[in-house]
Design brief:
CATH architecture of the largest domain: 3-Layer(aba) Sandwich
Mean pLDDT: 95
Protein name: CYTOSOL_AP domain-containing protein
Helix content: 25-40%
Pfam family, one: Peptidase_M17
GO cellular component, one term: cytoplasm
Keywords: Aminopeptidase, Hydrolase, Protease
GO molecular function: manganese ion binding; metalloaminopeptidase activity
């Protein structure tokens, strides 16, 4: 990948190697006693526990082993805490691994072996633990590009795996490593390093040698104005600065098909590289962190990185990343404007800070137009769309289905997948009021973009945008009652990737990979 991470990711089934530290993640030291390669260190843990009761509760413990057991002596035991409470979940392993690896790095370890010990309560505990470790070793793209030697980083992360899972686990772990890094590179980078055009260049370079991913960047302002007029409107103020002009990134993956039940996934990821609010300017500190308003697009980029590596069968994926910058300036789009969308409908602009839904609408309309040519299509929009969703669900992404998607039940299955892989989602139900909310208050428009209030003080403030995307794209003509129903799910990610500016946790990327890719490799 571009400017690769300084830490190599390896899988091991032995403790014989150039390791200078061991990190054990578990809920009980008794599992150490039962492990063939670790049973010799059990007495040391018992002795430590007599003086340090915290080892038996969620904690991270640095322990010196006898020299004859492990020459560098350094052991970190990270306790996940209880796993049998009603609301315990596998994310405890991720947190414990993150803490353990961070302690390993701060103590100067360079080549660490990560061992996760668990019972059968959580079937993906080892992988989720490894994903937590990947979180700790990520070095931001802008830091990697400085070409300086990184001091506080691991040289290698070695994840212990039983022999029967060795080859497959190594392949999957490396795919996750690159996929999550791509997502973070795009999503976490500042608005100058990742301008719309720079995101396009990053994606183009990333897949330049790929035989399975097709990339097309549309940067011509005349084409964008003609074919994606709402996306063009959002970026209108920024067009005066050449480096800030928009870029529509189109991606496609077509897996080998050996079955009839091929699935077509069509994604639109919101890509606002900085959201000032536009003419409806964000004031005070409200703009801080809005460089992550491109995280929906970042998830799409990371998903394609995983597709490129794992090459799943019987799936066709088409995506658009509408990359824009919602600047403020003399040429900015304003409230009260009426703009005709790609679908032919006239949209009254109510608030320029509700730019996400309209920047995605025309690319979504295009994918709907294309869907007639493909088998079993399911359209998605992924967006850090509303503060209302954050208030409602915190760091959980919300899924909202149209009628055909609700009938099919994919979201229910994805929620189950998310629980298994440590990235839970919630299902939200669109209601008639959400569609009524978007109806115009005048004869000049077919729809209104929203209202004049912030989503956080609007009733059902994150559901109405999902309804708007259905109404504005033409999906109302593809309901269960129609000749050709089309599945659509809107995912409001809110701030599910975590707080700015700390390293993000790509969400719901892990769930998408686990649901759509892993079963097909």
């Amino acid at each position: 990948m571009i400017f690769p991470l300084p830490t190599s990711i390896k899988v091991t089934n032995t403790l014989k190697g150039n390791f200078d530290g061991i990190v054990i993640v578990s809920h009980s030291i008794e599992l150490v006693k039962k492990h063939t390669l670790l049973e010799k260190i059990y007495p040391t843990l018992v002795e430590y526990s007599l003086e340090n009761k915290t080892i038996n509760v969620p904690s991270t413990n640095f322990i010196l082993l006898p020299f004859d057991l492990f020459p560098t002596r350094r052991l970190i035991y990270s306790n996940v805490g209880s796993i049998d409470e009603d609301f315990d979940d596998v994310r405890k392993y991720k947190t414990a691994a993150t803490n353990g690896i961070e302690m390993a790095i701060s103590s100067g370890m360079k080549n660490v072996v990560l061992i996760t010990l668990s019972d059968k309560t959580f079937q993906q505990a080892n992988l989720v633990s490894a994903l937590g470790a990947l979180h700790s070793i990520y070095v931001p793209l802008t830091v990697r590009e400085r070409n300086i030697k990184h001091q506080n980083v691991l040289e290698s992360l070695n994840v212990f795996v039983n022999e029967e899972n060795f080859i497959n686990f190594e392949k999957v772990l490396n795919a996750f490593s690159i996929s999550l890094a791509v997502c973070r590179d795009i999503g976490d980078s500042d608005p100058i390093r990742m301008t719309p055009l720079n995101v396009g260049r990053y994606i183009k370079d990333l897949f330049d040698q790929s035989s399975s991913i097709k990339v097309k960047n549309i940067t011509d302002l005349n084409i964008i104005e003609k074919d994606y007029p709402l996306m063009f409107a959002v970026n209108r103020s920024a067009n005066d600065v050449p480096d800030h002009r928009p870029c529509l990134i189109k991606l496609e993956y077509h897996g080998v098909c050996d079955k009839d039940d091929v699935e077509t996934i069509m994604l639109v990821g919101k890509g606002v590289t900085i959201d000032t609010g536009g003419i409806n300017l964000k004031i005070g500190t409200a703009m801080n962190g809005m460089s992550r308003d491109k995280y929906g697009a970042a998830v799409v980029g990371g998903f394609f990185a995983a597709l490129d590596i794992l090459k799943p069968k019987n799936i066709h994926v088409i995506a658009s990343m509408p990359m824009v910058r919602n600047s403020i300036g003399s040429n900015g789009y304003t409230c009260d404007e009426i703009i005709q969308s790609r679908s032919g409908q006239y949209i009254r602009i109510m608030n320029t800070d509700a730019e996400g839904r309209i920047s995605m609408l025309d690319p979504l309309t295009e994918l709907l137009e294309m869907s007639i040519n493909y088998k079993n299509p399911h359209l998605y929009t992924l967006a850090t769309l509303t503060g209302h969703e954050v208030l409602a669900y915190g760091e959980y992404a919300a899924m909202m289905d149209n009628g055909p998607a609700l009938k099919h039940g994919t979201s229910n299955e994805m929620v189950k997948t998310g629980e298994i892989y440590g990235q839970p989602l919630v299902i939200d139900r669109l209601q008639p009021e959400d569609f009524q909310f978007n109806l115009p208050e005048c004869k000049e428009a077919d729809l209104r973009q929203g209202n004049t209030l912030a989503s956080v003080v609007t009733l059902r403030g994150h559901q109405a945008p999902g309804a708007f995307l259905i109404q504005g794209s033409g999906l109302m003509n593809h309901q269960n009652k129609n000749e050709r129903p089309v599945k659509f799910t809107h995912i409001d990610m809110g701030s599910c990737m975590g707080d700015f500016p700390i390293v993000s946790y790509p969400n719901p990327l892990v769930t998408f990979i686990a649901h759509y890719i892993l079963p097909r490799i």
